[in-house]
Predict the 3D structure of the following.
Amino acid sequence: MELFWYIVLMGMLGMYVILDGYDFGAGIVHLFFAKKEKDKKAVTNAIGPFWDANEVWLIASGGVLFFAFPTLYASSFSGFYLPLIMILWLLIFRAIGLELRGQYHNEMWESIWDKAFGIASLLLALFFGVALGNVVRGVNLGMVENGESAYEAHYFFLPLWNPTFSPTAEHLGIIDWFTLLLGIISVVALTIHGANWIIFKTNAELNTRLKSIIFKLNFVLLALVITSILIWHIIEPKPFTNFLDKPFLWLFPTITITGLVGQFWIKKFKKDGYGFLFSALFLFGGFASTAASIFPKVLPSTNSINPSLTIYNVAADEYGLSVGVYWFAIAIVLVAVYMFVQYRIFNGKMDDVGYGEH
Amino acid sequence: MEDMLFYDRMQFAFTITFHYLFPQLTMGLSLMIVYFKWKFLRTQIIKYNDAAKFWMKIFALNFAMGVVTGIPMEFQFGTNWAKFSELTGGIIGQTLAMEGMFSFFLESSFLGLFLFGEKLMGQKLHFLTGFLVFLGSWASGYLIIATHSWMQNPVGFEILENGKFVLNNFGALFSNPWLLPSYLHNQLASVITASFVVASIGAFYLLSKKHNEFGKLFLKTGVIFGLVSSVLVAFPTGDLVAKNVVKYQPVTFAAMEGIFETEEGGSEIVLIGQPDMEFKKLDNKIAVPNVLSFLTYQKWHAQIKGLNEFDEKDYPTNIPGLYYSYHIMVGLGTIFIGLMGIAAFQLWRKKLYTSKWILWSIMFMLPFPYIANTTGWYTAELGRQPWLVYNLLRTSEGASPTVSAGNTLFTLLGFIGLYLLLGMLFLILAGKIIKKGPELQNL
Ligand code: HDD
Ligand code: HEM
Ligand code: HEM
């Protein structure tokens, strides 16, 4: 049962990364590359009717985490208290940036909300990458000091950073150079992903320029990914154990590489959707490979006294998990139907949706 | 430790109070929009579609506020109430996860279609998407109240040696006797909010002699929905929830009603009075003998337990707050029935649109349903204190162990600042939509 819910949770988070990922990416494109009013309209039309439903994948993942792995939910949400609350604030700014902009036709008003939307999207992309970094790096569970746990074995608290910014320091912080690296990878990857979505859903003039931006960024992404794999060893002494034990897991890195390499043909694609498909593969593969590399751990411990949190020691009890399967099966089918209907009706290019016009 | 708990509670209370200002309108208004849309399909009178479109604009804005303030709620169980989440997550996580899977997806997928898809889909499908949005928001209310009911009256669980609450009967979560009365009461209360908002804007248009046609439509619809829901909220649903409190939380009931001493031969109902905690009595009391006993047990001389019969450590933590919240809610409920009753009577005599007094009163009634809803929740929540899970888990045992008071104060201040900004923006933008008014359209 634990394994089932782990796969469900990862699947839902993966959906979140792919779906809200393109919204964040579109926000970053909006911030840096959409100069003309027309370009900005194209960006918001492309994501307008979708972003809210995409965000629900995060809320629903939170719900499933709460119900299936309550100890992990409690431990990580209180331990990562500060960055999580900041993510909440940023989500608020992202949403109102998008929703309120069109309410007045006034240059100052519009540019404030444009900036709110763009900057919040950028920071969210960064923070989610940093968060992933924190999970694979691990935390000082139980807040061990001189060989003594100060709290129960599964609780901890992290400040935003420590003065050394080192991922191996005794007193860890949320932001160190390793987690920051993952944050930057996330920003670059999501920018590419968002740009691909805009190309897919609009006929904007901007699109040709976006293709060459994607092409250049993809080199940066490749370099960053290689660097991160090289320094993985500092964090996880034997990063490939899981992959060596269970060769089928190589599927995930293969997907990642396909997505990454395929992107280099961006200028030659016949269909506008292909680029998006490849960036989705990259994100999914990258996320799954990272999760697989630490499995069955979900939050490693950096001290030797308290054990890492694994899916087995944080799960809810058997009965609850089993009944959950029934309602979840119904719900996920319904969700698939909603998505089908939604994407069916807003099929094709979205240039005329007129999002945010009042 | 004390400080930490205090800020955690303040943050939860502040953010949930603010959040709930929006869903109450979302749930009630979606019903009324569906009604306008349905009227339009039936009669093909374009006015109804225009009315639906006008309210959809307010709805969209309000919905966005509900969403952005709702997400912090979902996270806060983990961030600020980690111990509570760890111990009870296997149970309340069920209903919260179901809320995400069943209602938020439904609402958010179809809201996009409802707002932007009218041209693409045609009228029938457009009505259907509106109906699904309504269904989603009411399902969300149901599942959140199922969660809340479990905290008020825990069922279907056992407690393990390590203190964890584990579920052993899924069905019990939904057949909880607390749930249905509470849900109906709450939903009707949200219909009250929406009807008063609609009626109030209608009255405003009539008084300022703008959009006359719509003013009349809004006022009429608002008054009819308002009267029906105000009556139903008091009876039978208000009565039923009160009976649940007597049955499952007698000490809370005594505090709500301000009964310090058990009275032989039947309890009086207190209309006015101030709880005096030093001397354990009510000051300046105006009360009607025996009515409370009758309302509660349908017997004039039934005995109701006073606070004196309970252990002081189980008293609700804030008795005056609880008492006032309850009396404000019930007092306002009575006023709503009266006002909407008179308005409906005038409507029937065809004099409503020219009765200046009534129009002014309805217009200024706008904030009061919000107050009634908020004080209603304070009654429920203050009444549950000092427990998080009634009689089983104390609030002080539920907070996050590692999050310090300073950090919570920081985030609380952040929320206050941010929400003040949100509230201001909401008022300005809603004001703008109302000022512009509904637009007449040709299909
Ligand atoms: C417009 C709003 C409104 C109005 C006019 C009323 N209520 Fe109410 N009441 C609520 C809105 C509300 C609420 C916000 O919906 C609550 C909070 C929790 C709940 O389920 O409903 C509530 C809770 C609540 C409770 C507490 C239940 C608990 O402890 O969980 C009682 C005893 C009553 N109500 C009783 C009444 C009575 C006898 C009313 C007679 C006029 C009344 N309410 C009018
Ligand atoms: C929307 C209407 C609601 C309002 C206005 C409201 C209001 C409040 C208030 C004022 C408090 C502080 C009580 C105190 O500390 O003395 C509180 C606490 C709390 N409420 Fe609610 N509440 C609402 C709904 C809910 C729901 C639906 C749930 C559960 C799913 C819930 C769970 C809690 C929890 C966990 C606390 C913190 C612990 C505590 O202080 O009791 N609330 N709420
Ligand atoms: C602690 C308790 C609560 C939590 C955790 C919570 C959580 C949330 C979340 C995450 C959303 C955003 C959903 C989206 O993105 O579509 C939301 C919106 C909503 N909430 Fe709450 N909520 C709480 C209290 C309440 C209460 C008491 C009610 C009503 C009875 C309610 C009714 C709604 C509704 C109808 C929405 C839909 C959006 C809107 O109304 O604008 N919530 N809530």
